[in-house]
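Researcher: We're teaching a course module on how sequence relates to structure. For the next exercise, students receive a sequence and then see the predicted structure as tokens, so they can try to spot secondary structure elements on their own. Here is the exercise chain.
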Amino acid sequence: MLNTTRLCATLALPVLLASCSGEETTAAALAHPDETGVLKVSTRNGSTTYYTDRFDQPAGPEYDLVSRFAEAQGWEVEWDIQFSTAAVLRQLAEGSSHLGAAGLTRLASRDERFTQGPVHHSVREQLICHREMVPLPTTFDKLEGVEIQVVADSSYVETLDNVVAEHPAVSYATTEELGTEQLLAAVFEGELDCTVADSNIVAINRRSMPELAVVMDLSEEQQIGWYLAPGNDTLAAEAEQWMSTDAGAAAISYVDTHYYAYISEFDFVDLDTLVSRIENRLPQYIDEFMRAEEQTGMPADLLAALAYQESHWDPLARSPTGVRGLMMLTQNTARSLGVTNRLDPVQSIDGGARYLAGRYELLPEDIPDPDRIFLALAAYNVGRGHVLDARRLARQLGKNPDSWSDMREVLPLLADKRYYPDLRHGYARGYEPVHLVERVRNYRDVISMAFQ
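Model: And here is the predicted structure for the students to work with:
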């Protein structure tokens, strides 16, 4: 990984001098991938770009699109993971990468600096605040005094500059330390009034932070896609041609289905709905949860709460990502557990219970309950590798990796660019396991009465 900031602090290479002083320099163009067999791509960690999933495999919309493009050309991909959009663009300007694939909004200012590649999605920039903010600033004249913070060097800065030009009472701040997802989390936690994010980023993150309110659209639909280093016109044309083929259309369709199509199905449900389903659905499965407790040692009411969080006790629940059944098992996990039919509630409950028990058993025995159970739930959600990363990070930060109270503060740092570049398994949406544990605990408090 090439980190320009680090290089500027430690090396005196002439090609970097102008970049370190704030001026842009274009290095000699990279050889075409046909000559080397390698496509060099700069991206950033994020839920809409590139990340490591719960099974320690690379994933993300940009990862999938670039991988399919490169495979079609017979090239390998050399990934350069940067901390921010600005860093990705610096890599292109310096000629260190052929292609920038980082959810880059098509802007006139970028068109002047880089070679345009194909676009693959449209988004809107949205003002995001906490839904309990009173009053919600639904018009620009209500934004006076509202604390707004956005990522530095992002397209959001240009958008807000235009807003401020017409409404001088509006103000905002920028940050280079936090990414868009971290700012959304700050709004969710009540630490920040509002931020701005692309609609696709908002949609994914509202799954785990449903209290985020879309207050208003700040832009019309904008195209996002790839940019290439200056002078890479031939490669840009090849990418454009591939994206317009049936294979390119299929890749975009896969990304839509795999990452976005099912998001709205997993919001919070209210207490009345939970109580109703305890009466109408739980009795069909309560014996299976109790049997699973006898076989695995995992408490029946805990398993029922986890199943409710995962599927709302719908045995036919399924998502286009391949997660299915009452316990929402992936195909690979089901296969490893000997589950032949994930839509069979008996097999699903048994498999999910054994999988959770496995996460529990792999944790050190001296971790006391309920902390050990909470950490097992976190591993069920985000993957054991990311939980191990968080435990190592906790030690580095002087926190107790065996304490859920400490770990619920550390896990979100897996999405913080100050930390994840140095972690073995890289970026993860560390807020999600924290919120899952909190929801399961709340659900269990209500559900447990049915098991008495």
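Model: If you want an answer key for the exercise: The first strand starts at residue 38 and ends at 44. The chain has three domains: 4-118+223-261, 125-219, 264-451.
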